[in-house]
Amino acid sequence: MKAGLMYGPNDIRIEEIPEPTIDAGGLLLKVEAVGLCGSDIRNLTTDSCAGKYPHIYGHEVVGTVAQVGALCTKFQPGQRLYVYPGVPCLHCQYCRAGLSNLCANYRTYDQTQGGFAQYMAVPSWGVEGPNIYPIPDDVPFVQAVMSEPLSSVYACQENVQVRLGQTVVIIGAGPIGCLHAEVARMRGASQVIMIELNEQRLQESQAFGVTHMINSQTQDPIQAVHELTDQQGADVVISANPSTKAQTSAVYLVKPNGTLVFFGGVAKKALTQIDTNYLHYHGIWVYGHYGANTLQVKKAFDMVVSHQINAEKFISQTMPLDQLATAIHLMKTGQANKIVLQPWADDTKGKEG
Protein backbone atom coordinates (compact mmCIF):
# COMPACT_ATOMS: atom_id res chain seq x y z
CA MET A 1 0.00 0.00 0.00
CA LYS A 2 0.95 3.65 -0.35
CA ALA A 3 1.75 5.49 2.88
CA GLY A 4 3.21 8.77 4.08
CA LEU A 5 6.14 7.91 6.34
CA MET A 6 7.88 10.38 8.60
CA TYR A 7 11.64 9.84 8.88
CA GLY A 8 12.31 12.98 10.91
CA PRO A 9 11.30 16.64 11.14
CA ASN A 10 10.01 17.77 7.72
CA ASP A 11 11.21 14.49 6.19
CA ILE A 12 8.01 12.94 4.84
CA ARG A 13 8.27 10.26 2.17
CA ILE A 14 5.49 8.61 0.18
CA GLU A 15 6.43 4.95 -0.10
CA GLU A 16 5.01 1.54 -0.90
CA ILE A 17 4.94 -0.65 2.20
CA PRO A 18 3.13 -3.91 3.12
CA GLU A 19 -0.50 -3.66 4.15
CA PRO A 20 -0.95 -3.93 7.93
CA THR A 21 -2.14 -7.22 9.39
CA ILE A 22 -5.19 -7.53 11.62
CA ASP A 23 -5.91 -9.67 14.64
CA ALA A 24 -8.87 -12.06 14.87
CA GLY A 25 -11.18 -9.44 16.39
CA GLY A 26 -9.97 -6.52 14.32
CA LEU A 27 -10.65 -5.05 10.90
CA LEU A 28 -8.73 -3.58 7.99
CA LEU A 29 -9.96 -0.13 7.00
CA LYS A 30 -9.53 1.18 3.47
CA VAL A 31 -8.79 4.84 4.24
CA GLU A 32 -11.02 6.93 1.98
CA ALA A 33 -10.21 10.31 3.51
CA VAL A 34 -8.00 11.64 6.31
CA GLY A 35 -7.88 15.18 7.57
CA LEU A 36 -4.66 17.11 8.03
CA CYS A 37 -4.74 18.65 11.50
CA GLY A 38 -2.64 21.36 13.11
CA SER A 39 -1.32 18.79 15.57
CA ASP A 40 -0.28 16.57 12.63
CA ILE A 41 1.64 19.49 11.16
CA ARG A 42 3.32 20.18 14.49
CA ASN A 43 4.27 16.50 14.84
CA LEU A 44 5.48 16.16 11.25
CA THR A 45 7.68 19.25 11.42
CA THR A 46 9.29 18.60 14.81
CA ASP A 47 11.25 15.70 16.27
CA SER A 48 8.06 14.13 17.60
CA CYS A 49 9.06 10.46 17.34
CA ALA A 50 12.77 10.61 18.13
CA GLY A 51 14.20 7.10 17.96
CA LYS A 52 10.98 5.63 16.55
CA TYR A 53 11.18 6.46 12.84
CA PRO A 54 9.75 5.81 10.34
CA HIS A 55 6.28 6.59 11.65
CA ILE A 56 2.84 7.12 10.10
CA TYR A 57 0.62 9.84 11.56
CA GLY A 58 -2.98 10.76 10.71
CA HIS A 59 -5.88 10.64 13.15
CA GLU A 60 -8.92 12.17 11.38
CA VAL A 61 -9.85 8.95 9.61
CA VAL A 62 -12.87 7.66 7.70
CA GLY A 63 -13.03 4.70 5.37
CA THR A 64 -14.56 1.47 4.17
CA VAL A 65 -14.16 -1.90 5.87
CA ALA A 66 -11.96 -3.95 3.53
CA GLN A 67 -11.60 -7.05 5.68
CA VAL A 68 -12.62 -8.33 9.10
CA GLY A 69 -10.95 -10.85 11.38
CA ALA A 70 -12.44 -14.28 11.99
CA LEU A 71 -13.89 -13.20 15.34
CA CYS A 72 -15.10 -9.72 14.31
CA THR A 73 -18.90 -9.62 14.16
CA LYS A 74 -19.55 -5.97 14.97
CA PHE A 75 -18.75 -4.68 11.47
CA GLN A 76 -18.86 -6.11 7.96
CA PRO A 77 -16.84 -5.58 4.75
CA GLY A 78 -18.18 -2.66 2.76
CA GLN A 79 -19.39 -0.63 5.75
CA ARG A 80 -18.48 3.06 5.76
CA LEU A 81 -16.96 3.98 9.14
CA TYR A 82 -15.80 6.97 11.12
CA VAL A 83 -12.99 5.81 13.39
CA TYR A 84 -12.33 8.21 16.26
CA PRO A 85 -8.59 8.06 17.08
CA GLY A 86 -8.81 7.41 20.82
CA VAL A 87 -10.03 4.31 22.64
CA PRO A 88 -10.69 4.62 26.41
CA CYS A 89 -10.80 1.59 28.69
CA LEU A 90 -14.17 2.58 30.26
CA HIS A 91 -13.01 1.07 33.57
CA CYS A 92 -10.55 3.51 35.17
CA GLN A 93 -11.59 6.27 37.59
CA TYR A 94 -11.54 8.92 34.86
CA CYS A 95 -13.73 6.93 32.49
CA ARG A 96 -16.20 6.19 35.30
CA ALA A 97 -16.33 9.92 36.07
CA GLY A 98 -17.28 10.74 32.46
CA LEU A 99 -13.75 11.90 31.60
CA SER A 100 -12.89 9.18 29.10
CA ASN A 101 -10.67 11.61 27.17
CA LEU A 102 -8.36 11.50 30.22
CA CYS A 103 -8.48 7.69 30.46
CA ALA A 104 -5.52 6.26 32.37
CA ASN A 105 -5.25 3.47 29.78
CA TYR A 106 -6.01 5.53 26.66
CA ARG A 107 -4.90 4.03 23.36
CA THR A 108 -4.62 5.73 19.98
CA TYR A 109 -4.14 4.25 16.53
CA ASP A 110 -1.38 6.62 15.47
CA GLN A 111 0.80 5.25 18.26
CA THR A 112 1.10 2.21 15.98
CA GLN A 113 0.02 3.32 12.49
CA GLY A 114 -2.17 6.28 11.66
CA GLY A 115 -4.30 7.12 8.66
CA PHE A 116 -1.83 8.71 6.22
CA ALA A 117 -1.94 5.48 4.27
CA GLN A 118 -4.25 3.53 1.99
CA TYR A 119 -5.07 1.01 4.73
CA MET A 120 -5.15 1.21 8.52
CA ALA A 121 -5.53 -1.71 10.91
CA VAL A 122 -8.14 -1.30 13.63
CA PRO A 123 -7.20 -3.83 16.34
CA SER A 124 -9.73 -5.74 18.39
CA TRP A 125 -9.33 -3.22 21.24
CA GLY A 126 -10.52 -0.54 18.85
CA VAL A 127 -13.38 -2.55 17.41
CA GLU A 128 -14.59 -3.35 20.91
CA GLY A 129 -14.35 0.29 21.99
CA PRO A 130 -17.12 2.91 21.97
CA ASN A 131 -15.88 5.33 19.31
CA ILE A 132 -16.54 3.85 15.85
CA TYR A 133 -19.70 4.85 13.97
CA PRO A 134 -21.22 3.90 10.59
CA ILE A 135 -21.41 6.82 8.16
CA PRO A 136 -24.76 7.25 6.35
CA ASP A 137 -24.56 6.70 2.60
CA ASP A 138 -25.59 10.29 1.84
CA VAL A 139 -22.66 11.81 3.76
CA PRO A 140 -19.46 12.18 1.68
CA PHE A 141 -16.31 10.82 3.28
CA VAL A 142 -14.53 14.17 3.07
CA GLN A 143 -17.29 15.79 5.13
CA ALA A 144 -17.43 12.98 7.69
CA VAL A 145 -13.75 13.69 8.43
CA MET A 146 -14.81 16.89 10.21
CA SER A 147 -16.45 14.83 12.98
CA GLU A 148 -13.09 14.42 14.71
CA PRO A 149 -11.99 18.07 14.99
CA LEU A 150 -15.56 19.08 15.81
CA SER A 151 -15.67 16.61 18.71
CA SER A 152 -12.93 18.41 20.62
CA VAL A 153 -14.36 21.87 19.86
CA TYR A 154 -17.86 20.79 20.88
CA ALA A 155 -16.54 19.19 24.07
CA CYS A 156 -14.54 22.27 25.00
CA GLN A 157 -17.45 24.67 24.70
CA GLU A 158 -19.80 22.30 26.49
CA ASN A 159 -17.30 21.94 29.33
CA VAL A 160 -16.77 25.70 29.81
CA GLN A 161 -20.48 26.35 29.17
CA VAL A 162 -20.33 28.92 26.39
CA ARG A 163 -23.85 30.34 26.45
CA LEU A 164 -26.37 32.93 25.36
CA GLY A 165 -25.21 36.54 25.33
CA GLN A 166 -21.53 35.93 26.02
CA THR A 167 -18.55 37.47 24.29
CA VAL A 168 -16.11 34.84 23.06
CA VAL A 169 -12.62 35.64 21.79
CA ILE A 170 -10.83 33.09 19.62
CA ILE A 171 -7.13 33.43 18.92
CA GLY A 172 -6.26 31.69 15.66
CA ALA A 173 -8.46 31.48 12.55
CA GLY A 174 -7.33 28.05 11.43
CA PRO A 175 -9.83 25.21 11.00
CA ILE A 176 -10.15 24.73 14.76
CA GLY A 177 -10.63 28.45 15.38
CA CYS A 178 -13.32 28.61 12.70
CA LEU A 179 -15.09 25.60 14.22
CA HIS A 180 -14.97 27.36 17.59
CA ALA A 181 -16.55 30.45 16.03
CA GLU A 182 -19.36 28.45 14.44
CA VAL A 183 -20.12 26.47 17.61
CA ALA A 184 -19.99 29.59 19.81
CA ARG A 185 -22.61 31.27 17.63
CA MET A 186 -24.75 28.13 17.71
CA ARG A 187 -24.57 28.19 21.50
CA GLY A 188 -25.81 31.79 21.57
CA ALA A 189 -22.68 33.94 21.93
CA SER A 190 -23.59 37.51 20.98
CA GLN A 191 -20.05 38.52 20.06
CA VAL A 192 -17.42 36.25 18.52
CA ILE A 193 -14.14 38.10 18.15
CA MET A 194 -11.43 36.51 16.01
CA ILE A 195 -7.77 37.42 16.46
CA GLU A 196 -5.40 36.31 13.70
CA LEU A 197 -2.18 37.58 12.11
CA ASN A 198 -2.88 36.13 8.64
CA GLU A 199 -5.21 38.54 6.84
CA GLN A 200 -6.52 35.93 4.40
CA ARG A 201 -7.55 33.58 7.19
CA LEU A 202 -9.00 36.46 9.15
CA GLN A 203 -11.25 37.51 6.28
CA GLU A 204 -12.31 33.91 5.63
CA SER A 205 -13.37 33.55 9.27
CA GLN A 206 -16.36 35.83 8.64
CA ALA A 207 -18.12 32.89 7.00
CA PHE A 208 -18.22 31.08 10.36
CA GLY A 209 -20.15 33.57 12.46
CA VAL A 210 -17.34 35.92 13.48
CA THR A 211 -18.73 39.34 14.42
CA HIS A 212 -15.44 41.24 14.84
CA MET A 213 -11.97 40.66 13.38
CA ILE A 214 -8.64 41.82 14.82
CA ASN A 215 -5.41 41.53 12.87
CA SER A 216 -2.76 41.24 15.56
CA GLN A 217 -0.10 42.41 13.09
CA THR A 218 -1.72 45.83 12.69
CA GLN A 219 -3.77 46.25 15.90
CA ASP A 220 -3.16 45.83 19.59
CA PRO A 221 -5.52 42.90 20.31
CA ILE A 222 -5.74 43.68 24.02
CA GLN A 223 -6.79 47.26 23.40
CA ALA A 224 -9.17 46.24 20.61
CA VAL A 225 -10.94 43.58 22.69
CA HIS A 226 -11.38 45.98 25.61
CA GLU A 227 -12.84 48.61 23.29
CA LEU A 228 -15.37 46.04 22.02
CA THR A 229 -16.36 44.98 25.55
CA ASP A 230 -16.78 48.29 27.41
CA GLN A 231 -13.29 47.83 28.87
CA GLN A 232 -14.37 44.60 30.57
CA GLY A 233 -12.77 41.85 28.48
CA ALA A 234 -14.37 38.68 27.15
CA ASP A 235 -16.38 36.07 29.03
CA VAL A 236 -14.42 33.26 27.34
CA VAL A 237 -11.07 33.44 25.56
CA ILE A 238 -9.95 30.39 23.57
CA SER A 239 -6.32 30.18 22.47
CA ALA A 240 -6.62 27.89 19.43
CA ASN A 241 -3.08 28.07 18.09
CA PRO A 242 0.42 26.72 18.81
CA SER A 243 1.96 30.04 19.95
CA THR A 244 3.32 30.61 23.45
CA LYS A 245 3.34 34.35 22.71
CA ALA A 246 -0.40 34.24 22.00
CA GLN A 247 -0.98 32.33 25.23
CA THR A 248 0.90 34.97 27.21
CA SER A 249 -1.24 37.77 25.75
CA ALA A 250 -4.50 35.84 26.10
CA VAL A 251 -4.53 36.38 29.87
CA TYR A 252 -5.23 40.10 29.42
CA LEU A 253 -8.24 39.54 27.15
CA VAL A 254 -10.39 37.90 29.83
CA LYS A 255 -12.87 39.76 32.02
CA PRO A 256 -12.81 39.31 35.82
CA ASN A 257 -14.17 35.87 36.70
CA GLY A 258 -14.05 34.93 33.01
CA THR A 259 -12.58 31.77 31.53
CA LEU A 260 -9.29 31.33 29.67
CA VAL A 261 -8.97 28.18 27.57
CA PHE A 262 -5.67 26.79 26.35
CA PHE A 263 -6.90 24.68 23.44
CA GLY A 264 -4.04 24.58 20.93
CA GLY A 265 -1.01 22.58 21.95
CA VAL A 266 2.45 24.13 21.58
CA ALA A 267 5.73 22.46 20.65
CA LYS A 268 7.09 19.97 23.17
CA LYS A 269 9.15 21.58 25.94
CA ALA A 270 7.98 25.06 24.93
CA LEU A 271 7.02 27.05 28.05
CA THR A 272 4.63 29.99 28.28
CA GLN A 273 5.20 32.98 30.55
CA ILE A 274 1.95 33.75 32.39
CA ASP A 275 1.14 36.75 34.58
CA THR A 276 -0.28 34.79 37.49
CA ASN A 277 -0.86 37.97 39.47
CA TYR A 278 -3.31 39.10 36.79
CA LEU A 279 -5.07 35.74 36.96
CA HIS A 280 -5.11 35.90 40.75
CA TYR A 281 -6.45 39.41 41.23
CA HIS A 282 -9.05 39.09 38.45
CA GLY A 283 -10.35 35.70 39.53
CA ILE A 284 -9.80 34.18 36.09
CA TRP A 285 -10.57 30.51 35.53
CA VAL A 286 -7.96 28.65 33.46
CA TYR A 287 -8.88 25.49 31.58
CA GLY A 288 -6.66 23.25 29.49
CA HIS A 289 -8.74 21.35 26.97
CA TYR A 290 -7.95 18.05 25.26
CA GLY A 291 -10.18 15.61 23.38
CA ALA A 292 -13.77 14.61 24.05
CA ASN A 293 -15.56 12.03 26.14
CA THR A 294 -17.46 9.23 24.42
CA LEU A 295 -20.83 11.03 24.56
CA GLN A 296 -19.32 14.20 23.11
CA VAL A 297 -17.69 12.19 20.30
CA LYS A 298 -21.09 10.82 19.35
CA LYS A 299 -22.84 14.20 19.59
CA ALA A 300 -20.28 15.83 17.30
CA PHE A 301 -20.57 12.99 14.78
CA ASP A 302 -24.35 13.37 14.81
CA MET A 303 -24.02 17.11 14.17
CA VAL A 304 -21.97 16.44 11.05
CA VAL A 305 -24.04 13.61 9.56
CA SER A 306 -27.30 15.47 10.26
CA HIS A 307 -25.84 18.58 8.58
CA GLN A 308 -26.33 20.77 11.66
CA ILE A 309 -22.74 21.71 10.93
CA ASN A 310 -22.04 22.35 7.26
CA ALA A 311 -18.78 20.41 7.18
CA GLU A 312 -18.12 21.14 3.53
CA LYS A 313 -17.53 24.85 4.05
CA PHE A 314 -14.62 24.19 6.44
CA ILE A 315 -12.63 22.29 3.81
CA SER A 316 -10.42 24.41 1.56
CA GLN A 317 -9.52 21.56 -0.78
CA THR A 318 -8.89 17.84 -1.12
CA MET A 319 -5.56 16.45 -2.27
CA PRO A 320 -4.10 12.99 -2.94
CA LEU A 321 -1.84 11.51 -0.27
CA ASP A 322 1.13 12.01 -2.60
CA GLN A 323 0.75 15.75 -1.96
CA LEU A 324 1.07 15.47 1.84
CA ALA A 325 4.17 17.70 1.97
CA THR A 326 2.47 20.32 -0.19
CA ALA A 327 -0.65 20.19 1.98
CA ILE A 328 1.47 20.79 5.09
CA HIS A 329 3.08 23.81 3.45
CA LEU A 330 -0.25 25.29 2.33
CA MET A 331 -1.84 24.96 5.75
CA LYS A 332 1.24 26.06 7.68
CA THR A 333 1.58 29.23 5.61
CA GLY A 334 -2.14 30.02 5.75
CA GLN A 335 -2.69 29.56 2.01
CA ALA A 336 -5.27 26.89 2.81
CA ASN A 337 -7.35 26.40 5.93
CA LYS A 338 -8.40 22.75 6.10
CA ILE A 339 -7.07 20.14 3.66
CA VAL A 340 -8.41 16.60 3.47
CA LEU A 341 -6.18 13.94 1.91
CA GLN A 342 -7.51 11.04 -0.17
CA PRO A 343 -5.06 8.12 -0.27
CA TRP A 344 -6.66 6.52 -3.31
CA ALA A 345 -6.82 9.68 -5.44
CA ASP A 346 -4.27 9.99 -8.23
CA ASP A 347 -4.83 13.54 -9.42
CA THR A 348 -4.13 16.97 -7.93
CA LYS A 349 -7.80 17.68 -7.25
CA GLY A 350 -8.60 14.46 -5.44
CA LYS A 351 -11.75 12.40 -5.81
CA GLU A 352 -14.60 11.56 -3.48
CA GLY A 353 -14.40 8.05 -2.04
> What is the helix fraction of residues, given as a range?
25-40%
Shape: globular
Tally of individual helices: 12
Mean pLDDT score: 95
Rounded to the nearest angstrom, the radius of gyration is 20 Å
| Low-pLDDT stretches | 348-353
Termini gap: 17 Å
User: Could you give the count of β-strands?
Assistant: 17
From the helix content, strand content and strand pairing, which structural class follows?
Answer: alpha/beta
Largest sheet properties: 7 strands, mixed
**Strand proportion:** 15-25%
Pattern of helices and strands: EEEHEEEHEEHEHHEHEHEHEHEHEHEHE
Oligomer: single chain
Short account of what is shown:
This protein is an alpha/beta fold.
Describe this structure in words.
The structure is a single chain. The protein is of the alpha/beta class and 353 residues long. 27% of the residues lie in helices and 25% in strands. It contains 12 helices and 17 strands. Strands 3, 4, 5, 8, 9, 16 and 17 form a 7-stranded mixed β-sheet that branches. Strand 14, helix 10 (276-282) and strand 15 form a beta-alpha-beta unit. It is globular.
